[in-house]
Design goal:
single chain, Aconitase, domain 3, globular
């Protein structure tokens, strides 16, 4: 790889051992990818926090040891300085305000608390959400980033027009300490054009519809880059958030283009660049129905648990859930958890949404989700969710049956204690 003089100096130890170890990691990573050089980044979103039993033995030797092994792939303990560039923590393992409800080990909860303090002292912003763009981390079009988390990456590339590949703990750790990441994949303009076309012939309007379209898209294009034609409704943040999360779950989509909606595709011609449009893949009424059915992983309609907010809810979604629950009571045999970033949770608290949800018997959760934490209410066998991503992952992770539906279907079912949704 071609290195600048500054990068050579970092590699050779001019900025200390942690930065030198980071540069070594990035050089080896870039060479494995055939990247010709590194690119500067000032926006890193990764997983640095410690909250699992598997790192307890590392934490006993201090959090420098944890960071060294998990984020720098180092067998040696290196003293970790402040991050060189703006860096945030993505979703983590325990909701610090609801750890008892989650059934988290108190010792692990305290370990996470100490880990957060350690990271904050080193310049890691504890956003603790899979949607950092909802709470202040909003890169601009063309900005080079180093982000983890598939639903965040697809939003970053497609909706914001910034540039990132799906990174890992080690590469984001090294990027945070150096402000560099290998220049490959979606950092290169020529790799960002569409190479698949989806023609939308079915109605796609509410959030559940967008989740279904995303889930169909992932299976249809796998890791390719789709563009869409014949969309008739303008999506908002929450619809694109759910669409992208679903497409990244059922396939490996990291970028898509919707002419007139996403920033790199003012026209269909711009979406494809110099390439000709391929033959279209149809998403019609039959495909929509089959995809909806594919998301239903349950037969038992008696509900134990309803999970809303994957990716984490926007404040508009929190308002909607509170509106749907106003004056109602969740069935005593059913638990409802509503997930939102902790920063938006404060707005929900002040707006009265949290009070309404709790008065109905629900709980407002932050920082994590059941798929990440592996924690659900005791005895759960059947769940319902408004998230195609959660419907995809949670039944396999938690060995439960899962229903997928709209927010209204999920709330109404939580009140009834049984799944009321119908296949469209």
């Amino acid at each position: 790889m071609r290195l600048t003089e500054d990068e050579k100096a970092m590699r050779d130890g001019a900025n200390g051992p942690a930065v030198a170890r980071s540069m070594d990691l990035l050089i080896r990573y870039g060479e494995a990818l055939d990247a010709e050089r590194l690119v500067e980044t000032r926006n890193v979103a990764g997983a640095f926090n410690a909250s699992t039993p598997s790192v307890r033995h590392l934490a006993e030797d201090g959090f420098d040891r944890v960071f060294s092994e998990l984020n720098l792939d180092s067998d040696d303990t290196i003293e970790i300085p402040r991050m060189a560039v703006p860096t945030c923590q993505l979703i983590t393992g325990i909701d610090m305000e609801n750890s008892a409800l989650q059934g988290a080990d108190p010792a692990l909860t305290e370990m996470q608390r100490q880990s957060e303090k350690y990271l904050g002292q080193r310049g890691v912003n504890m956003m603790c959400t899979c949607t950092p763009y909802q709470v202040g981390n909003v890169p601009v079009q063309g900005e080079h980033c180093a982000w983890m988390e598939s639903s965040a990456v697809i939003y970053c590339n497609s909706v914001l027009g910034a540039r990132t590949n799906v990174e890992g703990k080690e590469s984001t750790g090294a990027a945070a300490l150096t402000g560099r990441i290998p220049y490959w994949g979606l950092h290169l303009p020529e790799n960002r054009h569409a190479n698949r076309l989806i023609r939308v012939e079915a109605e796609v309007d509410d959030m559940a519809d967008w989740g279904v379209l995303g889930y169909f898209t992932g299976f249809a294009v796998e890791e390719n880059r789709p563009a869409f034609e014949r969309l008739t409704h303008q999506p908002n943040l929450m619809k694109l958030k759910h669409f992208g999360a679903a497409a990244a779950s059922s396939g490996g989509v990291e970028i898509y283009h919707m002419p007139g909606i996403t920033p790199e595709a003012p026209t269909m011609e711009a979406a494809f660049g110099t390439s000709a449009k391929p033959e279209a893949i149809c998403f019609g009424a039959a495909e929509k129905r089959r995809t909806w059915e594919r998301l239903q992983n349950a037969t038992d309609r008696k509900l134990d648990f309803v999970m809303l907010g994957c990716p984490h809810n926007s404040i508009e979604q929190m308002s909607l859930v509170a509106e749907l629950l106003e004056g109602r009571r969740i069935h005593p045999d059913t638990a409802l958890w509503v997930h939102t970033p902790r920063a938006l949770r404060q707005i929900a608290d002040r707006s009265g949404y949290t009070d309404v949800i709790r008065a109905a018997g629900g709980e407002v959760m932050s920082d994590t989700c059941p798929s990440i934490s592996r924690r659900l209410p005791k005895g759960v066998r059947v769940i319902a969710t408004d998230s195609a991503k959660q419907a995809h992952y949670l039944p396999a992770i938690a060995k439960v049956q899962g229903w997928f539906g709209s927010v209204r279907q999920c709330v109404d079912s939580a009140v009834a204690g049984e799944w009321l949704g119908v296949v469209r």
